[in-house]
Amino acid sequence: MKNPLYLLNCYLKEFDSTVTHVSDDGSEITLEDTAFYPTSGGQPHDNGIITTTDGRLFNVIDIIKKDGVIVHKVDKIGLQVGNIIHGVIDWEYRYKLMRYHTASHILSTLINQETGAEITGNQLYHDKARVDFSLENFDRSLMQGFQNKTNDIIRKGLPVNFRILEREEAFKIPSLVKLRKQLSETIKEIRIVDIADNNFDFDHQACGGTHLKNTTEIGEIEIYELENKGKERRRIYFRIKE
Q1: Domain range spanning residue 20?
Q2: Of the residues 38, 58, 89, which one is the last residue of a structural domain?
Q3: Is the CB of residue 164 less than 8 Å from the CB of residue 7?
Q4: CA distances in angstroms from 132 to 79, 189, 197, listed in the order given
Q5: Are residues 75 and 102 both part of a single domain?
Q6: Cα-based angle 201, 204, 207 (whole degrees, multiple of 5)
Q7: Cα distance between residue 172 and residue 170, in whole Å
Q8: pLDDT digit string (tens) for 136-178?
Q9: Coil/strand/helix, residue 223
Q10: How many domains are contained in the chain?
Q11: What gap in Å lies between CA 127 and CA 123, rounded to an integer?
């Protein structure tokens, strides 16, 4: 399979492709190319539909990665290897996740810059997101500060761009050095998400998820909950104000 289509074009809503494999029970398929995003990195899978040239319709109900291959689970059997299909993404759902994902990058970077905390995880939902980080002491009054600073960055209208770099080239970026031990040596290329313009170089992270073109598309976030998950484990929840 070629590079997933969403890696460099997160706004691709429809695409054409060919079925390359069907599971024995007919419920899972792989495609020559796909714009459907699989559950990965704290971002849930896309939803959508697949139609064939003879008018049959299949709902895409789950998408996962198996051994580096994107596998689509459909709601009924009938697809065969060689079928030409047209995929349509549930764009309203995907776009909401894109807004949350880009917002999570901004908030995570600010937490790291302000406290030195390591970001240990994140999870996106259609109506909220959370960021986990390692910090011994955390003053709850700082939440409002993080909220305001995140919204300040959002309002700057920073472009969000992607680069795919060779492994060694990617690790020349200071913020990515700590990933060297976490990423398998088998990963030779790394996709970088840049949030920056000529006047303000804000963030560069390795990420395979879907993102916006500009920070202003996020809107405004609200931090509404902080959890203490144990020693040096903190969790922030936020939502986008509609």
Answers
A1: 5-89
A2: 89
A3: yes
A4: 40, 26, 27
A5: no
A6: 155
A7: 5
A8: 877 778 888 999 999 999 999 999 999 999 988 988 888 776 6
A9: strand
A10: 2
A11: 11
Q: Do 126 and 236 fall within a single domain?
A: yes
- Residues ≥6 apart with Cβ < 8 Å to 152: none
* Cβ-contact 210, 193 below 8 angstroms: no
113 and 84 in a common domain:
no
Domain boundary among 57, 89, 121: 89
- What's the predicted TM-score (pTM) here? 0.94
How many helices (DSSP H) and strands (DSSP E) are in the chain?
3, 13
pLDDT digits (tens, 9 = 90+) for 62-76: 999 998 899 999 999
Do 209 and 226 have their domain in common? Answer: yes
Q: Give the rounded distance of the alpha carbon of 228 from its chain centre.
A: 25
Angle made by CA atoms 27, 32, 38, in degrees to the nearest 5: 60
Q: Smallest Cα–Cα separation from 208: which of 88, 29, 39?
A: 39
- Looking at the fold, whether 137 and 33 belong to one and the same domain comes out as no
Structure tokens at 184: 């398998």
**Spatial CB neighbours of 6, under 8 Å, sequence gap ≥ 6:** 12, 35, 36, 37, 210
